[in-house]
UniProtKB/TrEMBL annotation:
Signal peptide feature range: none
GO cellular component terms listed in the entry, alphabetical order: cleavage furrow; cytoskeleton
GO annotation (BP), single: cell division
Record bears the keyword GTP-binding: yes
GO terms of molecular function: GTP binding
Residues of the full protein shown: 31 to 327 of 417
Domain Septin-type G: 21-294
Name of the protein in question: Septin
Protein's UniProt keywords contain Cell inner membrane: no
Compartment(s) where it occurs, according to its Swiss-Prot or TrEMBL record: Cleavage furrow
Family of this protein: Belongs to the TRAFAC class TrmE-Era-EngA-EngB-Septin-like GTPase superfamily. Septin GTPase family.
Transmembrane segments: none
Length: 297
């Protein structure tokens, strides 16, 4: 339905008990400075998702990000509450150089794990607010020929702490052909360098048609290429959210130009639960095991 993004189906995916509590979900953006990370976050907050809802976080003019910034919003769909948190990070080149960059982000991710660990060992274990970062959109420049040394390094530093989802930014600067070539190149770079990015879960053999189609669509478009904008433009009487060029307009929600809708749907609706499970069962467990072994040494 219009204006709905579909997280109300989350209860079908998990125990009904969690419905009353609502869902916590945190996403982060990382990558070089100037690739449109902050714009993308604002795009998300500006998009349909927030029409008629709170928009106090949307800025028209985006300043350079100099420190880690967290924005939160609570939205409700069909009685299901979602507390969405978005973490914006300064890119390398901004306030941070390459070597210290990953450390700043790693410290942040660990501090959230640590918070959870303390809460888990406390008295009120039943209603822990989960502030761990469940996924990280890693921004890759459109003008390169695949992953650069620094992208590989940073992704490798991140991969054991967070679900990394690679994203090609500013897809409007490339032709369709160039986008497809770059996507193929990135897929092969990820394999060659053995980078652990987020893997879609295996489908059950009895999974229905809709889920199969969604899964196939995501796999075909992977890694996503996006166009972001904080501008609302008026085109033929319709308000769209896009970028204006001498030759025309790019609508960020037009699937011909941008995988924006696909990524939003994947994060907020179809794969949120899995991203949370991987965070808890694998990444957090790993952190916890390391922590415990450091106590005993
Ligand atoms: P950040 O440093 O990664 O946070 O990048 P910003 O969000 O501050 O954006 C840097 C510049 O890129 C700004 O001038 C944006 O308007 C521009 N920009 C952001 N997204 C896009 C996009 O999808 N396409 C194009 N062409 N420019 C973009
Ligand atoms: Mg920024």
């Amino acid at each position: 339905k219009e204006g709905e993004i579909g997280f109300a189906t989350l209860p079908d995916q998990v125990h009904r008990k969690s419905v009353k509590k609502g869902f916590d979900f945190t996403m982060m953006v990382c990558g070089e400075s100037g690739l449109g990370k902050s714009t993308m976050i604002n795009s998300l907050f500006l998009s349909e998702l927030y029409h008629g809802r709170r928009q106090q976080y949307v800025q028209e003019k985006i300043n350079q990000t100099v420190q880690i910034e967290t924005k939160g919003i609570e939205i409700e769909e069909k009685g299901v509450k979602l507390r969405l948190t978005v973490v914006d990070t300064p890119g390398f080149g901004d306030a941070l150089n390459c070597e210290t960059h990953w450390k700043t982000i790693d410290d942040f991710l660990c501090s959230k794990f640590m918070e959870y660990y303390s809460a888990e060992s406390g008295l009120n274990r039943k209603c822990i607010q989960d502030n761990r970062v469940h996924c990280c959109l890693y921004f890759i420049p459109p003008y390169g020929h695949g992953l650069r040394e620094m992208d590989i390094n940073l992704m490798k530093h991140l991969q054991d702490r967070v679900n990394v989802i690679p994203i090609i930014s500013k897809a409007d600067t490339l032709t369709r052909n160039e986008v497809n070539k770059l996507k193929a190149r990135i897929r092969s770079d990820i394999q060659t360098h053995d980078i652990k990015v987020y893997q879609l879960p295996e489908l059950d053999s009895d999974e229905d048609e809709t889920v199969r189609t969604e899964d196939a669509e995501i796999k075909a478009a992977w890694p996503f290429a996006v166009v972001a904008s904080t501008q609302i433009l008026e085109v033929r009487g319709q308000k769209i959210h896009g970028r204006l060029y001498p030759w025309g307009v790019v609508d960020v929600e037009d699937p011909e130009h941008s995988d924006f809708l696909k990524i939003r749907k994947m994060l907020i609706a179809t794969h949120m639960q899995d991203l949370k499970e991987v965070t808890h069962d694998i990444l957090y467990e790993q952190f916890r095991a390391q922590l415990l072994s450091s106590f005993s040494n």
